[in-house]
Amino acid sequence: MENPAAPVLAAWAAPSLLGVAFSGGADSTVLLHAAARQWPGRVHALHVHHGLQEAADGFEAHCMGVCERLGVPLHVGRIDARHAVGESPEDAARRARYRTLARLATDQGIGDIALAQHADDQVETLLIALSRGAGLDGLAGMPREMTRHGVRFHRPLLDLHAHALRAWIAASGTPCIEDPSNSDLRYTRNRIRHQVLPALAAALPQFRETFARSARNAARASGLLTELAAADLTTTGAPPALTALRDLPRERQANLLRHWLRTAHAAVPSEAQLAQLLDQIDACRTRGHRIHLKVADGHVLREGPVLRWYNAAPSSSP
Ligand SMILES: Nc1ncnc2c1ncn2[C@@H]1O[C@H](COP(=O)(O)OP(=O)(O)OP(=O)(O)O)[C@@H](O)[C@H]1O
Questions:
Q1: Strands, DSSP E only, in the chain?
Q2: What is the DSSP letter of 118?
Q3: Each residue of 173-223: pLDDT tens digit?
Q4: Signal peptide: which range, if any (predicted)?
Q5: Which of 52, 76, 157, 180 has the most C-beta neighbours closer than 10 Å?
Q6: Which of 20, 28, 74, 194 should be mutated for ligand 1, with most atoms under 8 A from CB?
Q7: Is 25 one of the annotated binding-site residues?
Q8: Options 1.10.8, 2.30.30, 1.10.3470, 3.30.465; which CATH number does 237-310 get?
Q9: Is the pTM higher than 0.95?
Q10: How many angstroms separate the alpha carbon of residue 16 from the centre of ligand 1?
Q11: Does 3 sit in the ligand 1 pocket, CB within 6 Å?
Q12: Could you count the other beta carbons within 10 Å of the beta carbon of residue 297?
């Protein structure tokens, strides 16, 4: 049986040096085997050791064994995936993982990393976004390519179904790690994987492809909204001036404010906070009108003609 990742990689003009994010799990095992075969001498495996997880030492030892057999250099980075207050442990671990993968790659002079997420992972991501009431950028799902921490991340397996990858692992008898936390139904992603995807497969056999198409449509629309926000921001200035903001229709104000808060301050307002802020902007027609609202983990304040964001309220309010 052919490795299902092989034809995908064969069609990919991969960079001269490629890091493969290798957890030891089934999916990245399939990817690493295919990549090592396709580009001998050009592939490095990158493994993140999750310091707090009991089984992490065993995972690392497994990865070392696999890489030795494949003749692929392995680089290991440690993270302590403690999460901040208000942040989900899964999100914190993911963020720390990307940071560590990028550092491992950069240390080796590698500018590109392949991740092993596949079509089922994309559907799970979309359903998680829906379950959180995400906007268009969340519904765009995982991009095929993105740059983070100065490194390009690729997801070459995004069109492959999980069962094709698993079938190859089983048929070839290739050893891989079964992370026990993957069956822990306290995690939303696992409940979606084990309870929702089977029901979707029975009711809507093409769901992976149609959901992926919706994600692509959302990504395009989200890109246009970002462009519009950036163009509007050049009119209002940054931080945005209140009078110029008010000249825009309410939805464009909302689009601009979301963009400004996210790109300049990494702050994501809730729907209610944004609605309140827009009402305040509309009502702010006199010199003395104060705006002081909690937004994300900070505050938006009126300072004379402009709005400003502080991640803690300034000591003396204007
Ligand atoms: N500990 C890790 N070290 C290196 N890369 C990782 C690690 N965990 C995940 N990744 C990368 O991120 C991708 C997505 O992570 P996810 O948690 O969905 O995968 P996984 O279930 O742990 O493992 P796999 O995808 O290998 O079966 C993986 O396919 C892999 O490429």
A1: 18-21, 43-50, 74-79, 112-114, 145-148, 151-154, 292-295, 298-303, 306-310
A2: -
A3: 999 999 888 899 998 999 999 999 999 999 999 999 999 999 999 999 999
A4: none
A5: 157
A6: 28
A7: yes
A8: 3.30.465
A9: no
A10: 23
A11: no
A12: 14
